[in-house]
Amino acid sequence: MKIRSLLKLTNTYFLALSLIALLTLAIFITMHQVILTQRDSAYLINLSGSQRWLSQKASLLSIELVYSKNPAEQNLLRHNLLQIVDQIQSNNQLLLKGTPDKPQHLSPMMKSLYFNSPLNSETHLQRFTSEALALAKEPSLSLTPNNPHFTYVLQNNETLLENFVSIVNQYQTESEAKIQRLQLLNSASGAIILLTITFLGVYIFRPLTNTLVAEKIQLEKTNQELSLLSSMDGLTGIANRRQFDQSLAQLWSLASRKTEPIALIICDIDFFKAYNDHYGHLQGDECLKKVASGLKESLKRQGDLLARYGGEEFVVILPNTDIDGAAKVAEVLRADIEGLEIPHLFSSVSPRITVSAGVACLYASSTSSPEHLIEAADQALYQAKQTGRNRIVLANGLAIPQT
Fold first, then answer.
1. Exactly one of 312, 338, 371, 375 is catalytic; which is it?
2. Which CATH class is domain 3-206?
3. Is 375 an active-site residue?
4. Chain-wide mean pLDDT for the chain?
5. Which fold has domain 241-400?
6. What's CA 107's distance to the chain center, in Å?
């Protein structure tokens, strides 16, 4: 997937997460509002219910005041009635206006109950409290069953109670409706979150996961290709010096556990500088490719490793091979390269390309190292060059007869 598409998916992912965060915040606020609504509703309903009790209490005190003949008792009843009236008026102000830090906003229906006919609860309440207040201030001689203030309180108490019942019911109805709306909003927010999560899974997470998996596979493939390229010689296509060093170290460590032999063959194209000088470097590169291909085809075992050691030198690692086996392989390689019959008119040993090789073998152990093996094979190669080229020399100085 292109980088632009991946960025688009990522941006959509963050937008979706932002939406989820906002909706979660909305749900939290909604639930908080539900709690506040329930609390405020309970407060208003309790306050309205308290008004019912207080109005009944005012009626009872009015009756006791009228029929009491004890002046001291009358004074106490007057005092209690004044307190009840004051409490009724205070509660009424809270129901209508609230407090400065928490004002009350009446709905149109509540305003109608309080101020409009036929209920007009506010007018009834004000008249009731004013009549009860006037009764409490009447002199003792005027406290008779025919007192007009007393008559009004008794006759209108039931009407006032019915008004309070209507107000309580309306507060409860509005509270339930508001809570229902908030719960509906809460459910809608939850449903949108679920849909958003589903959208994330289907249209973002799955494509994003597939993209990441595809990118991982491509990256692993690229890394393998890069690793392969870093371990191959760019000209000949065989292992390079780096791969040779790593493979020899690994094979040496493995062989040292069982004290197995490892053989090494270092080959050098005879008089390759003269070949390059007269045929040109392009032809020289072609020669190196043909020699590398010929050496590779001559190796029969899968575990043997051919690498370009540097310039016109090639090296072969032969795991678990003694000196005799390595000598036979080296002679096959030499003969097969000569058999390619690549023309080399400027060679001092043959009119075609030939190689010289040094062969060494050591038993891998903790007291020896791959460097010892390389040094022994290199010394044998030097002797092969010094003694005429186009030949195989073992590390013990023995030259292998040509077949």
1. 312
2. mainly alpha
3. no
4. 86
5. Alpha-Beta Plaits (3.30.70)
6. 48
